[in-house]
Every structure is written in C-alpha cells, then in structure tokens.
Amino acid sequence: MNGILNGMRVVEGSAFVAVPLAGLLLAQMGAEVIRFDRIEGGLDAGRWPLAPSGQSLFWAGLNKGKRSVAVDMRSPEGRELITRIVTAPGPDAGLFITNLRVRGWMDHETLSQYRKDLIMVTLSGDRHGRPAVDYTVNPGLGIPDITGPEGYDAPVANALPAWDLIAGNVVVSALLAAERHRLRSGIGQAVDLTLKDVAAAMVGHLGMIGDAVLNPVAREKSGNALYGAYGQDFVCACGNRVMVIGLTRRQWDGLVKVTGTGDAMDAIAAASGLDLAEEGNRWKLRDVISAILAPWFAARELTDFASEFDRKGITWSVFRTMKQAVVEDPDLSDANPMFSVLDQPGLGRFPVPGSPVEFGSHRRQRPEAAPALGADTEEILADVARLDDREIAGLFDRGVVDGPRRQARPAA
Amino acid sequence: MNGILNGMRVVEGSAFVAVPLAGLLLAQMGAEVIRFDRIEGGLDAGRWPLAPSGQSLFWAGLNKGKRSVAVDMRSPEGRELITRIVTAPGPDAGLFITNLRVRGWMDHETLSQYRKDLIMVTLSGDRHGRPAVDYTVNPGLGIPDITGPEGYDAPVANALPAWDLIAGNVVVSALLAAERHRLRSGIGQAVDLTLKDVAAAMVGHLGMIGDAVLNPVAREKSGNALYGAYGQDFVCACGNRVMVIGLTRRQWDGLVKVTGTGDAMDAIAAASGLDLAEEGNRWKLRDVISAILAPWFAARELTDFASEFDRKGITWSVFRTMKQAVVEDPDLSDANPMFSVLDQPGLGRFPVPGSPVEFGSHRRQRPEAAPALGADTEEILADVARLDDREIAGLFDRGVVDGPRRQARPAA
C-alpha cells in the first residue's frame, strides 16, 4: 500500500467504534496499524450487524487493512509481548491508541519506561473515569430531546453513533498532532480525551450551550426541518419523499424560482412583515412556507423535477432506505472510486469504502479486507517484537498467542 | 497561546459547519488560523442559534480563537490579497482549508503557482460537483429511515449535524497528514473530499452497507434501543427518564445484578432457548428484557439508584434537555477544565469549550472568543501579506478591505 502515512506504525488496543475507527482511518491513509486482541476475540468481535454466516460485518468494517495479533493478556508473557510491540523501536513507531481500561502495565507511565518517546492516545468515557457510550452521552446532552417529530413527547435517540464517529476522528488528529510535535522535539506523551468531552465541545462549538444558557425559550423538536433557516421534507405524487434546502440566499432563491412560488412567498412576507431574504425569518415562517411548497411536490412525481433540480443547482435529496441506497445510488458502488467490491471470506461480496480523502500526491488506495483474528501473529512476533523462531514456537505452544496458521515458520 | 500545533499557520475560507469547525479545532490546538470573509460577512455570519442581542452564537462558536480578515473578493485587488495571505512564506504556513466553490483564482492549480508546496484541502458536496449539506446527505443514506420510534412511519432526521462534524474532523486529519508528508518530501498538494463520501465511508465502516447488500431483512426503526445488543430507556417514578446499557457482558451482568432481575432473565433465556450472555440474543429479546426491567425503574426515583449505579460502574445516563444539562451537569461548566466561562461582547457570558484533547506536553489552552469580523485585517495585511502602511491605508480607503478599527496604523 502506498498511502500518505506510509512508514508510520500505530498499535491499537481497542473495542467499540471510536478507536477501531481511528485505527482504520490511519490504515486507509497508509499507516501500518497493528491491532491486538485477546485470543478469544475482543469485546466487539461478534457485534451486529452480522453477515448471513453469523460473522460480524461491524468488526470486519472497522478493522479493514489492519494487521492482527492475538495474545493472552492475562499472562505475564502476553503482557510483555504487547509491551514489546507497542514500544518497538523505529522513528515512525511508538504510537499507541487505545480505549481499553487497563491499569498498571498498560499505563503510559509504565509503557514509556520502555520507549521514552512513546505517544499514547487514550479515549475514555468521561473525565471522572465513569464508563460512557454514544447512547449515554447523547441523552445527557439533550440531543434526543430536540430530535423527532414536532409535538412528539419523548426523546428520540440517534440511530447513528455520531459521537463515536467524531471521537474516532479526534483520536486521529490528536495522534497526528502529537507525532508532529515529537518529530520536532523528540518528546512523546500521554494524550487523553473522553467521549463525553468530545460531545460537549462539539455542542458548545455549534452554539447550543450559549443558546441554552442565554435564551429564555428552549429549542424544541422541529421534525425534519433544517434548524434556523429553511429546509423541509415533502412527499411527491409517486410516494417518494424529498428533502429540499433553502439555507443560503442562493439556495432559497433557487427553490422559490424552480417551484414558481415567488408570488406566494412575497405575499406571506408582506403579511408577516418579515423579509424572507433573512434566513432566520424563513425559519420563523417555515410552516407557512411549507404549506405553499407542499402542493407543488404533491402534484409531481420525482422524475418530473429531479433532473431540473440538479441542473439548476438546487440542494436537495431523495429519502432512501439503506437497501434502496445500495441499489439506486451509484455513489455507494464501485462506480465511485472510493468503493471497491470485495469478496470477504465468511462475509460475502459487497462494496467496501476506502478513505474518503483523495490526496493529490498518492493514488487512491483500494480498501483491504479485515484480517482473520491473529492472522499476523507470527509475522508481528518476528518483525516487530523481534523474537526468533524458537521463542515464537514456544509462545504458540504455551497458548500465549494464537493465530489461524499455527505451523512453525520455516527456519530463515 | 501555547498549543501543540504552535507555529503552524492555516488559512480558512469557509462557511457552514465542517470547515469552520476544522479551523477551530486547529486553532484550539495552537495553530494560527486566519479566516477570511467578505466585508459584509460570510454566508453563515447570522446563523442560528442567536444570542438575545441577535448576534450569531453559531458563528461565534465556530470561529473562536481565529484571526479575521475582511476582504472584498469581487475586486482583483481583494483576490490578490487573499492569494498573498494563502501563499505567504514560512515553513509551517502554506496551508489552506476551504469549502468555498470558487473556480479560477482560488483553485489549487492557480494558487500553487505562488507557492509550489501549498497544501489545499477542499471539502465539497458530492463527487459530481453537486451541492450537499448534512440535511441532504443523511436522508440519501437511509439514516432517517432507521431513526425514530418503532412503528413510526416517516423518516426522522438528525437534530445534530453529525456528518458536518465528522467531515470537519476529517479535514483536520487530512491536513495534518498532508503536512507531515510535506515535511518529509517538500511536496504540497491538493487534498479533496466530499461530505457525501465521508458519510458513505462511515456507514460502510459500521457494516451498514454490507448489511443492506447481504441480508434479506432490512434494519428497522428501533426507538431508543441500542442496536444489536441491549440498551434501553426507562421512565422512573419521579418522571425522569434514564438510558441503561447492557452492551458488553460486564455491562449486562452489572445491570441484571443491580436490578435483581437475574431469575427473571434466566427464565426468559430458558423459555426462548437463547443464551443472554450473547449480545445478539439480548437484541432479539430486548422487548421481553425491557418488560422485566421497566417495573424496577417505574417503582424508583432517580435518586434511589443513581449513586449505586455509579458506584457499581453501570453504564447509564439520565435524559436531559440542553437547558437542564447546562444547569445540572458540572461537566458543562468551568468545573470541567475544558470549559471557561467567557464574557463575549454582543453575546453574553456562558461556558465555552476548548479542545477536548489533553496533551501531556502542553498545558490546556483556555478558549478564546471569536474575533469581530475583520478584527485582524490590518495586522494580517502587515504581518502576513507584508504590505506597508501606505498600501494598507489605500486598501482601506478603496474599500478592498475592512475592519472594526479603520484608523491608520501609526507609522513604524
């Protein structure tokens, strides 16, 4: 693989979404990412969604293109091995990302005794050491309270683990920032963040904390309306549902023009005394605006206006199920250079995404399938932990490590 | 400011959420981030939420700690100025992030004529050049279809612009990866990504594309249940709603133990023939499990069990509104070192987040307020564009640039 992070080696000890995602994003930019797991598989080895075979699509999705080493971490020998792998020499190694809550031998303080310039990025739940997952962070911040149909009286959780995905990306940038600093100063460090702080920072950045503190009226559920300006979903004559956006002035003018609703919009602006050129006024008048637009969509099939909307640069989308999306949207197929259709043993054949980032300096890397658990144990023990064949064979024999191919390596 | 990215200079030309967020995250790690805007303010200068004064909390939230230069980009002089600022010399400069769709003078091809090793990261809507925003990307991928109460027959959009937040973070790591490469090779480049590809990659990484392609039965709405294992919300006797998690074996065992529901769980396991130690079985039996747990919560007030849940390491949370969260949760106040309470002119006083990442090598930086539009125009023209006082005065006089303080700089 020839990626922009070529030469960098990152060790990952992780479960759930965020840190595995961080390792994946690094791997798909060309880093060598070594993931270690317990011999019986990590906490997320069997997580849903599953393939028809029963194997985890989730695990395979988040561990693409990594190297896998399976180690019994309860044994002192296993712990020593992990320590060797994490702290192995090399100017672009000594990088460790984790969310495992292991005290003692896996602390930065302990590990950095073996490699002084180790960079260890640790994601935990909250700053008090309490566990937290996406599904608990989100309700505590009030997002489910403002999600869902207008007037619905219960909170609605995200189906997407958004905070996990964001935190995983923060782990990547934190690691790259710390490595940049090490390159200049020679100094390694512990880098710490929590899922809850990531989420709290983001809602603060969006102005939601200021809003809650300063404004007497709390934000309420507003269904599928785009908050603060104009954007709404409509059902067409064919039963399809579309989302249309009038966030910027240009988007709004385009939408009014293409639907021929200018006179009606002028009338409600005059009646209300609110200038619809201001996005906040479109938010205030969204119900009236939608009442004007709804008949336009109800009278038309999707095919009546889809091409024209695209041609005129309208910002819009059709609502799909994921099953429809994989059939109907070529951007989710290998017509999109980000995707490759891979045959993955035990899973099946489907489009698999590589990095969403296209670096001019490097050809796009095709995604690689996830390894079998322990697929690279032998090689990593030899190449990274620098053990000889006898030592490696002994570790396999004593059950300290495992892998799919347990035969001894041929003598060099 | 003394952050881990000290010395790095990034120029940002942006609107909406993702790229402004990227600039903010870089600034909060210590980079000097120069944001340029039109003299009348950018597309998002007045975006909701607003402070009681009518000023944008959104804009202030996403532009904290940046330097602001206000330029008339319709004028050739203004364009030349932006070009000078973007391509100014310095080993840790020549970094440009943008989502503005400006062809010609703001292309990487054109700009890199002035600085060959320029790194320019461009986020656009989709790979076909069509516009896209969070609210259109999400429906197209089927997330609203699986969000919301079980049985509810319409899609439910995210209240959180999750894809924007994720894409902003991807911009940061793409920039750092490209800068790392430039440091080794001397080579700059164009780096391109789209909001839609970021989203499509993430749903693929989570296994959702494989699920949609391979499995005959589509994932459906499942209310507030944690997908694939166990997690559910319950209403307590006091009216509070809590989320409790039984995702891992340890979380599940803890939940069963603390609620004393072991016998009942054993009974449903025996009746169904499904081992509840397997997380997928907890998902399949979630309704029966919830029926067993619901009376436990209905009979108790939050204060009856909150401390015990924390003491026993249960993964759980109370549902709050954002207004409750800012009052009740000390993690959203300056009791959390990530937050500082700032007085911001025109906005008010409220807790403002800094970086969620704690680097061992650097003291946590306090967040800085957003600049007034054009607050740094004069300084940037002098220090970055290297213009002399006469040239700067001329630009102000001709209306090519603007700032809150239009007085001439004292002669040096």
UniProtKB/TrEMBL annotation, chains A, B:
Q: Which SUPFAM superfamilies match?
A: CoA-transferase family III (CaiB/BaiF)
The entry lists its GO molecular-function terms as: transferase activity
Q: Which UniProt keywords apply?
A: Transferase
Q: Which residues cross the membrane?
A: none
Q: Which domain of life is it from?
A: Bacteria
Query: Does the entry feature the keyword Calcium, yes or no?
Result: no
Q: Which Gene3D superfamilies match?
A: Crotonobetainyl-coa:carnitine coa-transferase, domain 1, formyl-coa transferase, domain 3
* Name used for this protein in its record: CoA transferase
